[in-house]
Amino acid sequence: MPPQEPSSSQTNAPLLRILSPKTSLIQTTRERSSLTMNLTKRKLILLLVFILVAASLLRVLRITISTSYLPSLEHVQNAKNPSHTTKILSDKELNFLSDIILEKSPCNILVFGLEEQLYLKLPSINKGGTTIFLEDNQEKLDKMNANVEGTRFYKIKYKTSAKEAYELFKHARTHSSCSFRSGVRSLASKCKIALTGLPNEVLKTKWDVIVVDGPGGDGPESPGRMGAIYMAGVLARAGNGTNVVVHDVDRTIEKWFSWEFLSEKNLVSSKGKFWNFRIAKKKKLISLKPSV
Fold first, then answer.
1. Looking at residue 178, what is its pLDDT?
2. Are the CB atoms for 100 and 245 separated by under 8 Å?
3. Tally of CA atoms within 13 A in the half-sphere of 52 that contains its CB
4. What is the model's pLDDT at position 37?
5. Overall pTM surpassing 0.70 (yes/no)
């Protein structure tokens, strides 16, 4: 008899072995492994996003703390020991301001604030020029030597406190009486942020350098520098190209009001906590109402 042909069941045996449960288990394991890898990637991406968000929140928190009204260690030490002269400015900041003044001296300098560390030196830096200090603290004024040639001290009063900064900011933005574009015709009433009652000499002089380092502004109840920065902007635009130097720009009020009333486009240099703005002469004359 001729040899028998293999049956169909024998021919398909290898195929059945390929599709055995063991092979299916291997395929399932591979699919699970692939799914696990995909889940791991998703977890890594979510973890990375979480880390970035946490880092951003920490940065915001750090900025908030640095611009808060909490008094610095230097202020606390000075309060405990009134005879101690606090070093308000670093040596770099001191040299920065001195260089700005030396480029123009002898010139007209107006200073909001009165700190011993620097401002007693200004008359010698600006020898032959005029230096005027505006201060609200009578105790500081009593310590000054009123006989220094070319130097004068005036006591002024601030009617607003630092806690009113946001409302004053909105007021100045929405009231035409505070606008530089239309020109400030009178500072007697409508613009709440304007400092009224300033000496006639201050309003009439064309200032070459204006320094804003007062009032203290180190607490919500203390006078903030809103009006001082605003007035620096008003007086600078009535000058012939005035440098306005603002100190403590790491604080919220100083930062906001400098951007608004001195303008970012006018910022020419900075050092430490100082911003130096160069204000070009305003074409339209600004009329200011002096105190009676």
1. 86
2. yes
3. 6
4. 64
5. no
